[in-house]
């Protein structure tokens, strides 16, 4: 099987599992316990926090471990907006982009439904980019928070985060970015990005599902969304997932150390794959930005097919990928991301996303490109047969 669905999830890396193992077995203590076992768990958690802070260029106290990307996005969007509104009730608007993951979009809609906020949506251009001019157009004195993702999970477009954050800051507005898809591929130094909050999920970069983190700059006020025993300095209650934090720290450190090399290698493979697919299926349309895109994502529409049928034909040929985001799979509605890029509903339902992990090879992608050509032809033939 050739697995080209790494944007949905990745297998746990051997080194990550090895680093986690002691905290799943003999060193299983609760970091809040005042005995040796607890203290050793607390020190593992502190070590993980310090490694993460090193990888993100921030202070240890600015890391909140969470159960994943969704929780980190919820905490950022709700937590920052509600804290700002509590300090100044006039701050009752949040800005998100038109291509956010549901974890951000639904958090913003929750603020609208239950806390009187208005959600302002910044449009994207046909390549999925939020331009600084478009963002400037929606910022208001009442804006409590801007949340714009670093890289899109369906089409791979990478946003100019530093420029967008600067624009928000010029008006005194904090800036959050969902870096779940960017982690492992793009620079994550929070000082260079200039963001106030950033979400990361473990399972997209070789750590297990169910662990993630939110970076929150120390001057940024945050209202917790999970209440309880006051762990994570009161910002996220619940017994910490020590092994998960250790695994996430290991995966992030490995990604940072190999990132530049990995990025160039995989970007070159991606470009070759895009070229082969467009040559093999002349009416295929590459979605997302031609240059500012994740090294790991090649996404297309194949007009005259159905994305779901192409996926089935690909799987029959040993290639596993997806029609877009894993969360939207199975839904009949056209992808809101593709719709925001101006793609018609008819074409949007022909979308297929190929996403790679760092281990992808030329042979995999050569075989996958040949399978794409055959799968699309098979679906078109079937369609023509039905039409007769
Ligand atoms: N944000 C983006 C951009 C994602 O792609 C995903 C997962 O697909 C998430 C957030 C949610 O992360 P998690 O699966 O860790 O909850």
Automatic annotation (TrEMBL):
Q: Which cofactor does it need?
A: pyridoxal 5'-phosphate
* UniProt domain Aminotransferase class V: residue ranges: 2-367
The EC number on file is 2.8.1.7
Q: What class of enzyme is it?
A: transferase
What superkingdom heads the lineage? Bacteria
Q: Which GO terms describe its molecular function?
A: cysteine desulfurase activity
Reaction catalysed?
A: (sulfur carrier)-H + L-cysteine = (sulfur carrier)-SH + L-alanine
Q: Which UniProt keywords apply?
A: Iron, Iron-sulfur, Metal-binding, Pyridoxal phosphate, Transferase
The record's section on InterPro entries has: Aminotrans_V_dom, Aminotrans_V_PyrdxlP_BS, Cysteine_dSase, PyrdxlP-dep_Trfase, PyrdxlP-dep_Trfase_major, PyrdxlP-dep_Trfase_small
Q: Return any one Pfam family short name.
A: Aminotran_5
Give the family per the record: Belongs to the class-V pyridoxal-phosphate-dependent aminotransferase family. NifS/IscS subfamily.
Q: Known PANTHER family for this protein?
A: CYSTEINE DESULFURASE, CYSTEINE DESULFURYLASE FAMILY MEMBER
| Name of the protein this chain belongs to | cysteine desulfurase
